[in-house]
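note to self — DONT lose this again. spent like an hour looking for the file last time. sequence + predicted structure for the chain T wanted, 346 res
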Amino acid sequence: MGLFQGPRIASMRKLLTYSRNVFVPVTDVCKNRCLYCGFRRDDGRVIRRQEAIDLLDRGARAGCTEALFSLGEAPWEVPGFSGRLKDAGIDDLIEYLIELSMLALEKGLLPHTNAGLLSKEEMRRLAPYNASMGLMLETTAEVEAHRSSPGKDPLLRLEAMAAAGELSIPFTTGILVGIGETREDRIRSIEAIKKIHATCGTIQEVIVQPFDPKDETAMAAIPPPRMETLVETVSMARSILPAEVAVQVPPNLADPLPLVEAGASDLGGISPVTPDWINPGRLWPTPEVLRSRLPGFQMVERLAVYPRFIDLGWHGSETRELVERLAGPDGLRRRDDSEISDRNRK
């Protein structure tokens, strides 16, 4: 069953989905130097096993179902990174991601890895241990913000999405609004994602993410996009993409009400225990606060893999037992499990 074939709500309010996750920043070392990024560090670090385990434990206790593993792109290409791995007792970063994913599964958390641009073979190694994976397209345009970021070549990123489709990996992607692209660029970016999905059916959601200026970055003085631009972009995305692909908006970066009214149907991952490490100054609103801000909408939890892909079996072989335990008949998070988690936190 697809996302838009969820349970019938008695009040007929529009269904909005979100995931309860724990955000694990594996490393902030990155080969790219995007002019807006506040995550990358020249003196970056690799998360130690015990620190990662502690985060996963906190997420499990807080009723999360998703472990979001995020890291800089191709950190192994950065001079000195091998020494950082060695200091952390790690031989191979992909193997370390597999290890962390296995730990997450043991704790009842479905891994979703966003590791930037990966090769098809690297994705093949990670796929059995992940419910889904992700890579932001950001834009198909050549923009100044990416002048020192070879990994942001849109052709390379589209090829990676196509490879994910060949591997039957449910995939999250998205565009970044306000980094120097034009309206026509945004249309082309969304159409490029649509074309990938038409070929391999791998896209489960497309994020419309507003640029958020960070202090001490080259784009600190650039204003974020206007709400009118975001509303227009969400509306365009909803009209261009097939109905089975969700349009997601991050509720910590913009008022979600005008955006869900424009067609967004998902609010992404909301963590009760960790910040948004990409935008640490933007706190997550709680589900309770969001419900009060979104009258006329019914918020329900989903898993890291969307219902349609559960039906297809397009999630890692090692995740299937946990997906079966967590998913209700509609493919969303089992409602009694979610309610018990809510009561346990009170």
